[in-house]
Structures are given as structure tokens and as C-alpha cells.
Amino acid sequence: MAYDTHLAQRIRAALAGVPGLAEQKMFGGVGFTVSGNLACGVQGDSLIVRLGPGQADEALKLPAVRPFAMTGRPMKGWIFVGPEGFQMEAELSGWVTAGVEFAGSLPAK
């Protein structure tokens, strides 16, 4: 499955200067990790964000957000954000920052 390379580039720009950042292909797209923990990524035209379970539950109330369910079973704390949820750079930056903050709160791998 192809992924939105323009979105990946926008995420790279938002992540500039984040310590411990790495990029790797995953989920048929690209993922961005902080100290080995996934913060965010791209699959198709959607943004993947890893949040704490409570924060993800709140995010799922937003119209552009749906559960991250690769195998049909949602993963707790992980969400997809559709393109309408990150059209503006400030929106994308907010999602990326939330993912980085959560990934940074986890023990390094």
C-alpha cells in the first residue's frame, strides 16, 4: 500500500530537532519513533498517532479520528486521523506533539 509522502514530509518538518528520533517503514507506510517508541506515522493518507489510552478516548470523539485497527481489533491508545483532521500545519503539529510527548513518557527501547 502506498502512503502519502507529502504528509510524511510535513511530519518530518514538524519533528525537526526532536532528540532520539528515528524513521522506519511500518504498517505499509512510515513510522516515526522517539527512543524506540512509536510517536506517529503515515498509512495511506491517514496519520497514525500513539497517545495514552485516556487521551485516545478523548481524541476518538473528534470527527476526523477513528481507532487504529490493523487486524480488525483496535489497539488501545493508537488512533488514525483522517486528512480533514490535519489540513492546517497547526493541527498536524498538535497531533505530532501529542504523539512525541507520549512516546517520550515511555521507557526507551
How would you characterize this protein structure?
With 109 residues, the protein is α+β, with helices and mostly antiparallel strands. The chain has one domain: Aspartate Aminotransferase, domain 1 (Alpha-Beta Complex). The protein is built from three helices and six strands; from the N terminus they run αββββαββα. It has a six-stranded antiparallel sheet. The longest helix is centred in the last third of the chain and has 17 residues. It is globular, with a radius of gyration of 12 Å. The model has no long low-confidence stretch (mean pLDDT 95).
Provide a brief overview of the structure.
This protein is an alpha+beta fold and 109 residues long.
Topology summary:
Blueprint: H1 5-15, E1 21-26, E2 29-34, E3 37-43, E4 46-50, H2 53-59, E5 65-67, E6 78-81, H3 89-105
Antiparallel strand pairs: 1-2, 2-3, 3-4, 4-6, 5-6
